[in-house]
Amino acid sequence: MLRASFSGSPYVGVFARATDSCVLVRPDLDDALVESVADELEVPAVPTTVGGSSTVGSLAAGNGNGVLVSSRVRDRERERIESETGLPVGALPGRVNAAGNVVLANDAGAYVHPDLSREAVRAVEDTLDVPVTRGRIADVETVGTAAVATNDGVLCHPKTTDDELDALEDALGVPADIGTVNYGAPLVGSGLVANTHGYVVGEDTTGPELGRIEDALGYI
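Given the sequence above, the corresponding structure tokens read:
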């Protein structure tokens, strides 16, 4: 476990996105912090922007099969991510294209914003090579902000309903539970970066919150 802030913000999930293959991080972080993040997650770190923005956690989603980014991605950014990770990089088309905010994925499936177009759903399926389910989490449509998924579990917004937890478990093939980060913040995706090896969480996160994270994501 690593408690951290990225450029003064405890909302680390806005600025980084992890899979079991890599972690994308905003490019202006201190080298020592980037190294600590990579060590905790046991994967290579790839400092990058997406579409010129440092909010790479909001703009990228991924799993062991690929990385999906906003359609605003620039060619050099796409090429860097592909070369550093060895994974194909796809772009999410349409108006709702902040991939990290609207796609929640692991190696078994993807759970996405209910209004994603058929073209966008196909892009998710093709890039991440998993079946896609549309839905909400705690009445939040930006499902990537409302939950964090790994290949071992899902941590969700504290107001997630039992039906939504069941839908998430069906879609992603792992247990789902609720929790918060950063002293009660419900949008756990904005304050947590995780894979099966470990996690990085906002520095304001409390001990009881850490316990819920570790239980939900299968670290204990």
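Residues 154 and 176 are 4 Å apart (CA to CA). Try to locate this feature in the token string yourself.
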